[in-house]
Every structure is written in C-alpha cells, then in structure tokens.
Amino acid sequence: MIALIMAGGFGTRFWPESRATMPKQFLRVVGDRSMLQLTVERLLPLIPMEDIFIVTAASQTALVREHLPRLPEENIIIEPFGMNTAPCIALSVAYLKRKYPQDTSMVVLPADHVINDRSAFLESLKLADTVAAAGKLVTFGIVPEYPATGYGYIEAGEMISGGVFRVERFKEKPDQQTAAAFLEQGNFYWNSGMFVWRLGIIANAFTCLMPDLNMLLGQIIKRWDSGSTEIGDIYASMPKTPIDIGIMEPAQNRAIIPVKLGWSDVGSWKALADLTPTDAEGNTFPRGGIAFASHDNYVYSQKFIALVGVQDLCVIETSDAILVTTKERAEDVKKIVDYLKDKGETSLL
Q1: Distance between terminal CA atoms of the chain?
Q2: What per-residue confidence (pLDDT) applies to 302?
Q3: Taking the CA atoms of the chain, what radius of gyration do you get in angstroms?
Q4: Cα gap 210→216, rounded to integer Å
Q5: Are the beta carbons of 255 and 138 closer than 8 angstroms?
Q6: What whole-number distance in Å separates Cα of residue 286 and Cα of residue 310?
Q7: Which residues, 6 or more positions from 123, have their beta carbon under 8 angstroms from its beta carbon?
C-alpha cells in the first residue's frame, strides 16, 4: 500500500493565519505538530515513509521539505500550480505508475484533516484495501453527528459486504432541511474526500471517464520521458475538476465504507473552535483572556482579550490583521481573501 497526501491548497477560510507563504496544512492549529506532519504520522504504523508521497504546488515544496525532513526527495510530486483534485490525482497516478505495479493499493488523503481515532482509521484502510482488490473505487463516508450544511454527502445503497456499500449518489452541500432529512433517512454520510483504489484501476478510470484530461496527461508523460520537468504549459490546460465530479460520480465500480473516526476537515475557524476545549461558558482563549456576560466565543490571539456581552464570535488576531466574524458566517472568510486579491493587497495574502 502506498499513500498520496494532497498538500497544495491555500486554506483561504483560515485567513488571516493561513497565508500564501504558510498555508493551512503547515499550521500547528491542533497541537504542536503541523497538520501535514500529523497526517503523515497517522499513516506510519501501516505505510512506511518511503511509500508516502506528497503532491503539492511548486511554491510549497520547500515547506514540505522543512516539515517532513525524513521524506525522500523523490516522494514530492510537484504541481506547477493548483488545478483541483482530478488533475492533481491524475498527475500523481502517472508519476506513481512509473515506480509501482498496476495492482498497488493507493490511499489518497487531504493533508489538513483531523482524525482522532487513529486505530479505527488504520482498520478502515485495511478494509478498503480488500474492497479495492476487487476493482472498486473506495471512498469513506463519515457517519454524520448533526445535520451539517457545510459538507457534501454520499448516499449509500445496497450492502456489498460487511461494512461496505454501493454508492448510490453524491449530493452537494444541502440546506438545513435537506440535511436533517438525510440524517433521518440514515444512509447518508459526510463526504470525507479520502479514497482507496488500485493504481491501475484509477488510471483506467481517467482514461475512460476523463479522456481530455488523459490526453494532456499523455503529453506530460512524453515530456517526462524526454527528461524535462517543465510541464506548466500543458498542465494549465487541465480541467479544473474535482475528483468527485470527474471520476466518482460517473464511475460504476464505486463503494463506500461508513466510518466513525473523530473526523473534521477543519474547514473554518468555527470548525477549529468546535475541536477546542472551552470554559464553562463555552469560550476559548488559547492564549489568555476574560469574558463577562459572553458565551460560545473562540479567540485566537497572542494578546489578552476581554469580551463583554457578545456570543458566537470568532476573534482572530495575527501580527498584521484582525478578523471578527460570527461562527455562523465563518466560512465566508474566503470572500475577504477574494476581496484582497481584487484590490492587489498582496502583503495581506
């Protein structure tokens, strides 16, 4: 079994802490290790370091080396720039096919998720490996804890074997009423964005289901064969398609394993607040503070912060910026990043 960790994002919903020079996956937001380091360490009892690969943007390769000094240099797969998960995974599959046999089992993971139950996670990978051996494209569905509107969902169909189900359909982020109906129905799961498949099976899926992408991939392989690593001009033409839409939705040989892992995609400051211990009033002051007539607030600051008469806020301070948002609107922080880009405020990005 080999692992591919996708670590090329910029974590815009974690602004102002996440920046172009230090994206979310390199931050130590859930302990004294970066999210990328935690993701790698989680795999090591099952997959050795020499079989773990990181795909990242060219601008982030130095950070990967800094955070993972034991990772072999050739285990960093470089995207010229981010183009979404289907091109990212396709490029990596082409690279890995040059090193491993077609029947190699491949795990694909984001670099910036929290998984608290490590043993359950590793057991789920072993189960997925047996399912992938039968030619299935396997994904993991997180058993929902509440009617979340910030996650996509996967509907499970009939059981294939113990703990494994056919994928009925993928559903985009629902409204509150729809999410509640999903929970009541009982066979809908949060889309984790984690996968297991055989190297040859996913390569064939790209050939059959994304022929335009596969044609460009062939051009990249020819460029590699000629000894060149300059592929940016070809890669820029790749479709900016998620793997769910490009491969998993149209595929027929797909399966889902429902899991309880203590999982979070830590997709916003609210999500981080939900993972962080609080005081009796639900307030969090990681670096000191006090609250009067205030509850359920999350503060991230090096300074002493005082709150009076407020609730359900995220207050985030860095050396050059302060963010104040309600927890409900925390995912809209990416709109600030878009605004700063439009205004050319590169010093804040």
Answers
A1: 37
A2: 87
A3: 21
A4: 10
A5: yes
A6: 18
A7: none
The pair of three-digit structure tokens given for residue 135, joined into one six-digit string: 């030619």
- Mean pLDDT for back-to-back runs of 10 residues, the chain (349 residues): 92 87 89 93 96 95 96 96 93 97 97 94 97 97 91 95 95 92 95 97 97 97 93 95 96 97 90 90 89 95 94 94 93 91 91
DSSP conformation letters of 12-73: GGGTTTSBTTB-GGGS-SSSSS-HHHHHHHHHTTTS-GGGEEEEEEGGGHHHHHHH-TTS-G
Whole-Å CA distances, 122 to 7, 47, 260, 320: 20, 10, 12, 40
pTM value is 0.92
Q: Which residues pair with 189 in a beta bridge?
A: 154
**3-state class (DSSP) for residue 7:** coil
Q: What is the distance between the alpha carbons of residues 263 and 165, in angstroms, rounded to a whole number?
A: 20
Quickly count: other Cβ atoms within 10 Å of residue 182's Cβ. Answer: 20
CA 87 vs CA 92, 159, 250, 256: distances in Å: 8, 31, 16, 22
DSSP of 291-349, one letter per residue?
Answer: EES-BS-EEE-SS-EEEES-BSEEEEE-SS-EEEEEGGGGGGHHHHHHHHHHHT-GGG-
Whether the CB-CB separation of 111 and 6 falls below 8 Å is answered with: yes
The amino acid occupying position 110 is P
pLDDT at 25: 93
Provide the 8-state DSSP code for 248.
I
- Identity of the amino acid at 77: I
φ, ψ for residue 106, nearest 5 deg: -125, 125
What is the enclosing helix (H) or strand (E) of 118? Answer: helix 118-132
Distance, in Å, from the CA atom of 270 to the CA atom of 176, rounded to the nearest integer, reads 17
Residue with tokens 């074997």: 161
Domains and CATH numbers, the chain: 2-264 (3.90.550.10), 269-348 (no CATH)
- The string of pLDDT tens digits covering residues 219-230 is 999 999 999 989
CA distance 60 to 25: 10
